[in-house]
């Protein structure tokens, strides 16, 4: 059953997704006079596939596709993927263990990708370990001539309650994205909060 707070949150996420797509489209059109197809990629960093974080990111993507006929969207769920942060420190993976991050590199560095939305559940006032591992592995993009530079980035956090650490989580993720020279999107007027927030009262994830 939809509550007033749930409906308000969904409206907010849709608006946030549309704002991200509009920003990406504006950045693209500033360089290209003829509209071209752009893609917005959403990344759910919950270890639980198909749960609230994925749903929140999907709401943003749905709104993004409505921003213009040339906008495509793709949802990537990291749940079930093997993304080992130790590789970012130069350590080898154990023998026989797959490295699923390698599959994400071409999908995110594709020039058609104008914007990326990262969503994480909140654990102890910060991002999930899966999200941190993903961001650590993104050092590969810095080493590859800052392949994410100039792309628009949006962040959302899903917590179990209001004031549950969502903004701290968002700021941590934003700091990592700024290190990639990405254009980080905030909530904008009339609010004064950082990034995008979502809250829920069910199980985390």
Would you kindly provide a written description of the structure presented here, covering whatever features stand out?
The protein has helices spanning 4-31, 52-65, 101-109, 129-137, 139-143, 166-178; strands at residues 38-44, 71-77, 113-121, 152-159, 183-184, 196-199. With 205 residues, it is an alpha/beta fold. It has a single domain, classed as Flavodoxin domain (Rossmann fold, 3-Layer(aba) Sandwich), CATH 3.40.50.360. Strands 1, 2, 3, 4, 5 and 6 form a six-stranded parallel beta sheet that branches. Helix 1 crosses helix 2.
Identify the notable features of this structure and list them briefly.
6 helices; alpha/beta; 205 residues; disordered C terminus; Rossmann fold; 6-stranded parallel beta sheet
- Ends: how far apart? 19 Å
- SS strand fraction: 15-25%
| Tally of domains | 1
The helix fraction, in percent, is 25-40%
As a whole number of angstroms, the C-alpha radius of gyration is: 16 Å
Report the sheet with the most strands, covering strand number, pairing sense and barrel closure: 6 strands, parallel
Query: Uncertain spans, ≥5 residues at pLDDT below 50?
Result: 195-203
Q: What is the CATH architecture assignment?
A: 3-Layer(aba) Sandwich
Tell me the number of helical segments per DSSP (H or I, 4 or more residues long).
6
Which class in CATH terms?
A: Alpha Beta
């Amino acid at each position: 059953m939809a509550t007033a707070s749930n409906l308000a949150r969904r409206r907010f996420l849709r608006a946030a997704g549309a704002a991200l797509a509009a920003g990406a489209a504006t950045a693209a059109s500033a360089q290209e006079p003829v509209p071209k197809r752009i893609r917005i990629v959403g990344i759910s960093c919950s270890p639980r596939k198909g749960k609230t974080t994925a749903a929140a990111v999907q709401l943003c993507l749905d709104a993004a596709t409505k921003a213009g006929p040339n906008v495509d969207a793709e949802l990537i769920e990291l749940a079930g993927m093997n993304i080992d942060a130790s590789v970012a420190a130069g350590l080898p993976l154990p023998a026989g263990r797959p490295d699923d991050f390698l599959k994400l590199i071409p999908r995110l560095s594709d020039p058609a990708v104008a914007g990326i939305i990262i969503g994480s559940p909140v654990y102890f006032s910060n991002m999930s370990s899966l999200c941190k591992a993903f961001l650590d592995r993104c050092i590969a993009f810095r080493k590859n001539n800052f392949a994410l530079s100039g792309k628009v980035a949006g962040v959302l956090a899903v917590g179990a309650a209001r004031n549950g650490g969502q903004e701290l989580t968002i700021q941590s993720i934003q700091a990592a994205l700024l290190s990639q020279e990405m254009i980080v999107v905030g909530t904008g007027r009339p609010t004064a909060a950082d990034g995008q927030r979502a809250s829920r009262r069910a199980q985390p994830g």
